[in-house]
C-alpha cells in the first residue's frame, strides 16, 4: 500500500526479488467496450496505447518474472482494462516518488503502483479506484498470534512501509503504556526476507499489505497462515492528470470488467479476491 508517512511518499511493500513461480493464466475473452473507449482523450485514442508508469517489484501486484517481463495482478488487470478500451498498455519502470510528478508532466498517461488513493494525493492527480487493500498479519501455521496482543513478540515488516513506520510503533507504544514489553520489530529491506524469516521461525509474525500477505500465504506451501483480520483498508487507485477524461474511461472499463465477472477472475488468479471491489469511483479517498 502506498501511503503518506512523515510527509514523504512511501511504498509499503517493495520486495527486490524476482519471482520464480509459474506464470498465471491470462483471462480470455476480453473485448473492446465502445462506451468506455468513447470517453478516451483524443491523443490516447490516436496513439492506440496507454503509457503506464510503474514501480517494481511489489509481489504480487507488480514485479518481474525470471525473464525480466513486468507481471502481476495490477498488470493483468491493466492489460484487461486496456483491451476493454481498445488499447495496448506499455509499462515503463519508474522510482515510486517520480510517478505522480511524471503524470503531471505528461510523461505517463497512468500511474500504476499499488497507490493508495489519499486526500493529499488527490490535490495533485485524480484516481480511478480498482482494489481495496489493508494490512494483514501472518503467523506460522498452528502457532497463533493475536495482532492486538502481540506485546513482546517478534514481528517482521518491510523497512519504510506503513507497517514499519506507523502500525507496529503504535501497537508497541500501547504495550509499553500498559506496562507490557514492547513489540520486537524486525525490519527487512525486502518483503521476501521478512516472509522467509517467518517461515523459518526467526520471528513470531509479520505484517504487510493484505494482498502481499495473501500471496505469501498462497506460496508458502502451508507453512504460514493469516493471523487476525484485514484492517485499515483503503482503496488503491490508478493516477491520471487532474480533470482528465482518461479517469472516467478507466472507471467505465474496470466497472465493465467487474460487471461481466472478468475482474473477479483476475483477482482469484492471484489469490487477492478479498480486496475485490464492486464499484469503481473517481477519487474515493477516505482520508
TrEMBL record:
<dbReference type="InterPro" id="IPR018313">
    <property type="entry name" value="SBP_3_CS"/>
</dbReference>
<dbReference type="Pfam" id="PF00497">
    <property type="entry name" value="SBP_bac_3"/>
</dbReference>
<keyword id="KW-0732">Signal</keyword>
<protein>
    <submittedName>
        <fullName>ABC transporter substrate-binding protein</fullName>
    </submittedName>
</protein>
<dbReference type="InterPro" id="IPR001638">
    <property type="entry name" value="Solute-binding_3/MltF_N"/>
</dbReference>
<comment type="similarity">
    <text>Belongs to the bacterial solute-binding protein 3 family.</text>
</comment>
<feature type="domain" description="Solute-binding protein family 3/N-terminal">
    <location>
        <begin position="49"/>
        <end position="274"/>
    </location>
</feature>
Amino acid at each position: 500500500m502506498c501511503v503518506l508517512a512523515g510527509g514523504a511518499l512511501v511504498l509499503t511493500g517493495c520486495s527486490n526479488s524476482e519471482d520464480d513461480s509459474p506464470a498465471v493464466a491470462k483471462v480470455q475473452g476480453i473485448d473492446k467496450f465502445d462506451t468506455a473507449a468513447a470517453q478516451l482523450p483524443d491523443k490516447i485514442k490516436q496513439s492506440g496505447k496507454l503509457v503506464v508508469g510503474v514501480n517494481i517489484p511489489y509481489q504480487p501486484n507488480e514485479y518481474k518474472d525470471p525473464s525480466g517481463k513486468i507481471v502481476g495482478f495490477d498488470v493483468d488487470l491493466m492489460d484487461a482494462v486496456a483491451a476493454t478500451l481498445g488499447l495496448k498498455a506499455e509499462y515503463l519502470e519508474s522510482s515510486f516518488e517520480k510517478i505522480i510528478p511524471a503524470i503531471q508532466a505528461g510523461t505517463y498517461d497512468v500511474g500504476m503502483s499499488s497507490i493508495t488513493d489519499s486526500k493529499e494525493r488527490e490535490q495533485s492527480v485524480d484516481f480511478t479506484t480498482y482494489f481495496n487493500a489493508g494490512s494483514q498479519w501472518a503467523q506460522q501455521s498452528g502457532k497463533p498470534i493475536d495482532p492486538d496482543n502481540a506485546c513482546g513478540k517478534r514481528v517482521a515488516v518491510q523497512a519504510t512501509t506503513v507497517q514499519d513506520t506507523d502500525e507496529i510503533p503504535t501497537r508497541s507504544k500501547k504495550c509499553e503504556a500498559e506496562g507490557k514489553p514492547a513489540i520486537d520489530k524486525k525490519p527487512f529491506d525486502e518483503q521476501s526476507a521478512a516472509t522467509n524469516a517467518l517461515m523459518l521461525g526467526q520471528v513470531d509474525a509479520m505484517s504487510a499489505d493484505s494482498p502481499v500477505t495473501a500471496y505469501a500465504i498462497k506460496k508458502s506451501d502451508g507453512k504460514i497462515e493469516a493471523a487476525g483480520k484485514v484492517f485499515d483498508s483503503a482503496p488503491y487507485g490508478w493516477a491520471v492528470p487532474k480533470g482528465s477524461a482518461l479517469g472516467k474511461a478507466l472507471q467505465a472499463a474496470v466497472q465493465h470488467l467487474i460487471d461481466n465477472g472478468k475482474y473477479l477472475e483476475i483477482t482469484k488468479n492471484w489469490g487477492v479476491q478479498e480486496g475485490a471491489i464492486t464499484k469503481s469511483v473517481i477519487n474515493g479517498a477516505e482520508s
